[in-house]
Amino acid sequence: MLTYKVVEIGTVTEDMIEETLNNWISKGWNFDGLQFAMRESSKRPAMAFALFTRETSPKAEKP
């Protein structure tokens, strides 16, 4: 089963993006994409969302 993880990055800088990616990849997640949320009054993103996936075994169903 494919599991998804979304991580909000509130301070969008090169260092914070690198730190977030390296942190979650070291925990076994695979980087899937990066989405930016923009402000109308600025050319810089207000925040970003890093998307990760990983394969997990399905949990046993309870009777």
Give a nutshell description of this structure.
With 63 residues, this protein is α+β, with helices and mostly antiparallel strands.
Describe this structure in words.
With 63 residues, the protein is α+β, with helices and mostly antiparallel strands. It has one domain (2-55). The chain is 21% helix and 44% strand. It contains one helix and three strands, in the order βαββ. Strands 1-3-2 form a three-stranded antiparallel sheet, with helices on one face. A hairpin with a 6-residue loop joins β2 (30-38) and β3. The longest helix is centred in the N-terminal third of the chain and has 13 residues, at 14-26. The model has no long low-confidence stretch (mean pLDDT 93).
Strand composition percent: 35-45%
Radius of gyration, whole Å: 15 Å
| Oligomeric category | single chain
Catalogue the unreliable spans.
none
User: Order of strands in the sheet with the most strands?
Assistant: 1-3-2
* Total domain count: 1
Helix proportion range: 10-25%
Structure annotation, total helices: 1
For the record, give the distance between the C-alpha atoms at the N and C termini, rounded to a whole number. 20 Å
* Mean pLDDT over the residues: 93
Q: Largest beta sheet, briefly? A: 3 strands, antiparallel
Query: How many strand segments?
Result: 3
Q: How would you classify the helix and strand content by structural class?
A: alpha+beta
Give the CA-based shape. Answer: elongated
Order of helices and strands: EHEE
